[in-house]
């Protein structure tokens, strides 16, 4: 349609601005997701790609506010308020405070002593003990907020495209990871300078993040099969595609050598069972009549799984790593006393969002000092309490409250076979909730949400839950 139709007339004759085309917001969302997974799959704040990703994120946020702000606010007010509260907490940590105030805050004695030893007068200082890190944390929140607004505005058909894109990204990352594990340790398929060389990391810098991303594909595949729309006799091919891909993901998870991924694998399968509901048009009688296809489907899936697992275990170091002790895990366990000492010292306000590295180094035991350093606590809940204090803990409780409200809605209102868009939104909501559960469990031993691409993925999942909640409330009064 020509751009002369930018304005349309209302019934009262007053000209009103026309809503932006849905395809533009969808294209912007899908394109930026591809960019995120291609550029920012690491958690370090010195990634060279951040020089491009940060400006792109700010531009996305501006466009999202202008194009999607009003509609997103109507659909996801509670979730947007939570996001703004998170941004507000980080911003508060950057407000300069007079010396008479910040010197009285817990844990600031060392900073005051440094200025005194240097013979310098005490300047105004923010709550953060490492301002550059906190500024980085603040800028990192632009992309998640932008994606939240954009995904909340997308219709069901666009959500389907988004689902397919995420599944395609997962398959691509798994294929790259397998080539990495089978190839040389310093091969060209490793995209980050500091990474787990010799392991399957795919589009990420860390094997655990690759493994986690792969297992989240199980609930997405269940949603893909449940959202089938078409002739009933074609449903078997959809089942075959989803089942064979799921079977292929199992050896890809094993190829990472990630223990946490192996432990979360059965959880992902259980959540996938919860997500899946038989599509409305998949007549059971038709499916029953295709027994040969079902048998072929099961056989193909088993063959893919067995062959893939054999190749992974025989040709990669994944099995050896799964069965042997992990020196890195032992070192992280030994560092916990220092982390708890720091937590007590900076309680109740924390050391500042994003300041874990500098804070830990103050309390690090001499015996653990090496030429490398901890970039995170490998427990996001502990790190959040250390750097954000009680306010961050309250935000965490708020987050769990939103998740509980979404779960109650998804469980209370059954997924019917005919009512649309209620049925599709519930399928997306269950898939999104399953992804968030896996990310939350992984955060107890790792830091997946410190990776920009995985944080964007989590926001998409949260938006799916929010859309399901909104449509359920609207449908049931």
What can you tell me about this protein's structure?
- Helices cover 67% and strands 1% of the residues.
- With 477 residues, it is mostly helical.
- The protein has a two-stranded antiparallel ribbon with strand order 1-2.
- Strand 1 and strand 2 form a beta hairpin.
Helical coverage, percent range = 55-70%
With strands numbered from the N-terminus, the spatial order across the biggest sheet is 1-2
**Which sequence of SSEs, written as H and E, runs from N to C?**
EEHHHHHHHHHHHHHHHHHHHHH
Q: Determine the strand fraction and express it as a percent band.
A: under 5%
Low-confidence stretches: 1-19, 283-287
> What Rg do the Cα atoms give?
24 Å
The rounded distance between the terminal residues' Cα atoms is: 37 Å
Shape: globular
> How would a textbook summarize the main sheet?
2 strands, antiparallel
Outline the secondary-structure elements.
Elements: E1 7-9, E2 15-17, H1 22-39, H2 50-75, H3 77-92, H4 99-102, H5 109-117, H6 131-140, H7 142-153, H8 156-182, H9 207-215, H10 217-226, H11 235-255, H12 259-275, H13 284-288, H14 291-315, H15 318-323, H16 327-334, H17 336-346, H18 356-363, H19 380-412, H20 422-442, H21 452-475
Antiparallel strand pairs: 1-2
Helix pairs in contact: 1-2, 1-7, 1-8, 1-21, 2-7, 3-19, 7-21, 8-10, 8-11, 9-11, 9-12, 10-11, 10-12, 10-20, 11-14, 12-20, 17-18, 17-19, 19-20, 19-21, 20-21
Can you give keywords for this protein?
single chain; 477 residues; 21 helices; disordered N terminus
Write a short abstract of this structure:
The protein is mostly helical.
